[in-house]
TrEMBL record:
<feature type="transmembrane region" description="Helical">
    <location>
        <begin position="133"/>
        <end position="154"/>
    </location>
</feature>
<keyword id="KW-1003">Cell membrane</keyword>
<feature type="transmembrane region" description="Helical">
    <location>
        <begin position="358"/>
        <end position="377"/>
    </location>
</feature>
<keyword id="KW-1133">Transmembrane helix</keyword>
<dbReference type="GO" id="GO:0005886">
    <property type="term" value="C:plasma membrane"/>
</dbReference>
<feature type="transmembrane region" description="Helical">
    <location>
        <begin position="289"/>
        <end position="309"/>
    </location>
</feature>
<dbReference type="InterPro" id="IPR011701">
    <property type="entry name" value="MFS"/>
</dbReference>
<dbReference type="GO" id="GO:0022857">
    <property type="term" value="F:transmembrane transporter activity"/>
</dbReference>
<feature type="transmembrane region" description="Helical">
    <location>
        <begin position="70"/>
        <end position="93"/>
    </location>
</feature>
<feature type="transmembrane region" description="Helical">
    <location>
        <begin position="236"/>
        <end position="254"/>
    </location>
</feature>
<dbReference type="InterPro" id="IPR050189">
    <property type="entry name" value="MFS_Efflux_Transporters"/>
</dbReference>
<feature type="domain" description="Major facilitator superfamily (MFS) profile">
    <location>
        <begin position="4"/>
        <end position="382"/>
    </location>
</feature>
<dbReference type="Pfam" id="PF07690">
    <property type="entry name" value="MFS_1"/>
</dbReference>
<feature type="transmembrane region" description="Helical">
    <location>
        <begin position="330"/>
        <end position="352"/>
    </location>
</feature>
<feature type="transmembrane region" description="Helical">
    <location>
        <begin position="266"/>
        <end position="283"/>
    </location>
</feature>
<feature type="transmembrane region" description="Helical">
    <location>
        <begin position="160"/>
        <end position="181"/>
    </location>
</feature>
<keyword id="KW-0812">Transmembrane</keyword>
């Protein structure tokens, strides 16, 4: 694998850490600013909204710029947002810093996916995308627990300063190692928008929202589920999340490897397996050991869908993959937000802390049905790319 993929993975590590570490530091941040924890929770919501809106916005702004240059600009934006968060004198400024950092998130992974795929042979594209996303999964194993520890030990501002430093390393790595890939001739906003005329692109994005929603319906409420149902201590939740991160890491690698060979079967297996595990999780949540195994499997099966779904969007978007790829990253975050809201609704309805697992299973099962439908459509209309609505520019390898 090219060294440039390592630079992309380091950037992904920083982004993954800043996205999730704030959840472990909410009490400290709320205490410093004298606000309630739910109010501090706006830092999570604001970031997610920034990703969903920033993914298409920043990608559109970058359509006239080379992809390497845009990646450098995005990492600069990420560094600036985290430094602003580290120094923020008020909650409002802190939220602004979070939103600035989040604007880089979707476009970085979207453009980075295209660059990673362009760096390798056609039969290695999903593996290359998975290598970049390894940075995001390692962030959940190492970055988030370490950032939480640093924040609790010496102050949460130090955590954000350290994350900004990782962003600088990623920026320098991209500048030094990523080749200046030429922009596809004719790649402009109109060309990028043609990708959304293909129903297969929209179906892949719907699978992303629902499949990843299945994961986060359960994981968003993992703390109350594990402490109130499984009987774990509050302190054990951090290690259970590390276990979830380990599952993400393994699933991402497996998803990348097998998606290069059999993309749709990989999607069927991972989405179907996720739905089954989430149904069983309603029962296994009552056992400490089985609950831990279930958390590992939810992470593994959920992230096994990431490389194939991202590659599916790239494949189906043809000559205009950049915007579609970035919007698909926004779709992951939309799935997170949708699932967290639905999971909260069933808990509020008095159905118990394991009820979000049923929601997750329903979402994952629906994503599986969409995958089957997508494959059936493809068998009937294999020549979509030859129709007049297709992007006129071939994919750049």
């Amino acid at each position: 694998m090219p060294l440039a993929l390592l630079a992309l993975a380091i950037g992904a590590f920083g982004i993954g850490t800043t996205e999730f570490v704030v959840m472990g530091l909410l009490p400290e941040i709320a205490g410093d600013y004298g606000v309630s924890i739910p109010s501090a929770g706006l830092l999570v919501t604001g970031y997610a909204i920034g990703v969903v809106l920033g993914a298409p916005l920043m990608t559109v702004l970058g359509t006239r710029i080379g992809r390497k240059t845009m990646l450098i600009i995005l990492m600069g934006l990420f560094v600036a947002g985290n430094l602003l968060s580290a120094a923020a004198p008020s909650m409002g400024v802190m939220l602004t810093g979070r939103i600035v950092a989040s604007l880089a998130h979707g476009a970085f992974f979207g453009i980075g996916s295209v660059v990673a795929a362009d760096l390798v042979a056609p039969d290695k594209k999903a593996s290359a995308i998975a290598t970049m996303f390894t940075g995001l999964t390692v962030a959940n194993i190492v970055g988030v627990p370490l950032g939480t520890f640093i924040g609790q030990a010496v102050g949460w501002r130090v955590t954000f300063a350290v994350v900004a430093a990782f962003g600088v390393v990623g920026l320098l790595g991209i500048a030094a190692l990523v080749p200046a890939l030429p922009r596809s001739e004719g790649a402009d906003l109109r060309g990028e928008l043609t990708a959304f005329r293909n129903p297969q692109v929209l179906l892949a994005m719907a699978m992303t929202v629902l499949g990843f929603g299945g994961v986060f319906a359960a994981i968003t409420y993992i703390a109350p589920m594990m402490t109130n149902v499984a009987g774990y201590s509050d302190g054990a939740v951090t290690w259970l999340l590390v276990l979830f991160g380990l599952g993400m890491f393994l699933g991402n690698l497996l998803g990348g490897r097998f998606a290069d060979r059999k993309l749709m079967p990989m999607l069927y297996a991972s989405l179907g397996g996720l739905a089954v595990v989430l149904v069983l999780f309603t029962l296994t949540a009552h056992s400490k050991i089985l609950a831990a195994v279930s958390i590992l499997l939810v992470g593994a099966l959920g992230f096994a869908t990431v490389p194939p779904l991202q590659k599916r969007v790239l494949d189906q978007a043809h000559g205009a993959p950049t915007l579609a790829s970035a919007v698909n990253i926004g779709a992951f975050n939309l799935g997170n937000a949708l699932a967290a809201w639905l999971g909260g609704q069933v808990i509020a309805a008095g159905l118990g802390y394991t009820a979000p697992n049923w929601v997750g299973a329903l979402l994952a099962g629906t994503a599986l049905l969409l995958a089957v439908w997508s494959a059936a459509l493809e068998r009937r209309t294999p020549a979509w790319e030859s129709t007049p609505t297709a992007a006129p520019v071939p994919i750049h390898h």
